[in-house]
Amino acid sequence: MRPNDRKYTKTHEWVKLSGEEVLVGITDFAVQELCSGNEGDLVYCDLPEPGRALEAGETFGEIESVKAVADLNAPVAGTVSEINVNVEEHLEVLSRDPWNAGWLIKLQPRTKALDAPELLDAAAYEAFITASKH
Amino acid sequence: MPEPWRLLHTFDGEPGWNMALDEALLASSDPRPTLRFYTWRPHAISLGYFQRWRELGPLPEGLVLVRRFSGGGAIEHSDELTFSIAAADTHTLFRGEVLRSYERVHALLARAFEAFGVRAAPRAAATLRSDHPTSAMCFHRSTAFDLAWDGAKGVGSAQRRSKGRVLHHGSIKLAAGALEADVAGLRAHAPALEAAALARAIADEFARSLGCRFEREEPTAAEQTLAATRAASYRSPEFVRRR
């Protein structure tokens, strides 16, 4: 079971409250789809400059594995306050700890409540990815 | 009931337009999967999305430089057939891990190549004579699932995944380009093979194996407009030299 202290998107990002801000990352499922368990297959990650304003669903960055470039999408609207520079330099963190050390960006959210209908809790996300496999 | 697919042939396309049309297909609202075959005029080099342009040495005269929005290494688009497949990431071809989708596409291509006497298979653990570790070219790097024959890589593949859709890029060598020494080509087995005949064979194999029915069309007006608007950006110095 994935952490239930955060919400998930159908494009496989997660968002979690962190004080007055939110942390955003990608799920273990997204990482597995991109690199099939080979952490060395993740090769690049482009994250936005702090200060950039994002709408919910807007692409804020890109990640490349050996064989695919995939968009990174903002689960909620807000302004980028910090990026995880460590991830850009050590992409293996995404395979080893996507839930904590593997956060990608910190946002000052436009609204703090993570209650938008398109955000899924852990159980609903689990059901979504189970359905997508069949 | 066969699944309807769109089939596009856009041969001799301008390099920037070729890339821009693929962007339009990735963003397309058409619910049908699309298989597009194309060639390039003038011939071109496409850089991978994240690739550093300085990795490339001096280019042969006459080759235009563009950057793809899919990943991987540089490809010389001269004696080859390029194809793209655009579909939802839930389509049976693309569902699940990226690696599995490569295996499915490559299996279809390998069966299509049999008509030309070519026995293509994933590289697996083999070492290829086309492996040149210091080269910036896609065909000089290989992974276990790359399609090879005659001891060399012959198909280059890359994907872009965005907003629930996938654009799969493929380059199939008819013969090695000037920058792609030691790469496998289909003409080694079928000397008179042309890109159009190869495209027909691949479409036939897709129809047979996937149970799909192709509807030969032109890009929609919206796709044409987007492609025309974005074409110049793919060969602009700002984009080509973004890294």
Count every helix of chain A, treating DSSP H or I runs of 4 or more residues as helices: 4
Describe the strand arrangement of the main beta sheet of chain A, using strand numbers: 1-2-3-9-8-5
The number of helical segments of chain B is 5
Rg of chain B is 17 Å
One letter per element, helices H and strands E, the order of chain A comes to EEEHEEEEEHHEH
In percent, how helical is the residue content of chain A?
A: 10-25%
Main beta sheet strand tally, sense and closure of chain B = 6 strands, mixed
Instruction: Tell me what portion of residues of chain B adopts beta-strand conformation.
Output: 25-35%
Number of strands of chain A: 9
How many extended strands of chain B?
A: 12
- Radius of gyration of chain A, taken over Cα atoms and rounded to an integer in Å: 14 Å
The proportion of strand residues of chain A reads 25-35%
Mean pLDDT of chain B equals: 95
End-to-end Cα distance of chain A, whole Å, is: 19 Å
Oligomer: heterodimer
The rough form of chain B would be described as globular
What does this structure look like?
The complex is a heterodimer of chains A (134) and B (243). Helix content of chain A is 22%, strand content 34%. Chain A has four helices and nine strands, in the order βββαβββββααβα. Chain A has helices spanning 28-35, 85-89, 92-96, 122-132; strands spanning 7-8, 13-18, 21-26, 42-46, 53-54, 59-65, 68-73, 78-83, 105-109. The mean pLDDT of chain A is 93. With 243 residues, chain B is an alpha/beta fold. Helices cover 26% and strands 28% of the residues of chain B. Chain B is built from five helices and twelve strands. In chain B, the strands form three sheets. Chain B has a six-stranded mixed beta sheet, with helices on both faces. In chain B, α1 crosses α4 (221-234). Chain A binds chain B through residues 10-11, 32-36, 43-44, 46, 59, 62, 64-71, 73, 132-133, and chain B through 49-50, 69-72, 90, 95-99, 102, 143, 157-164.
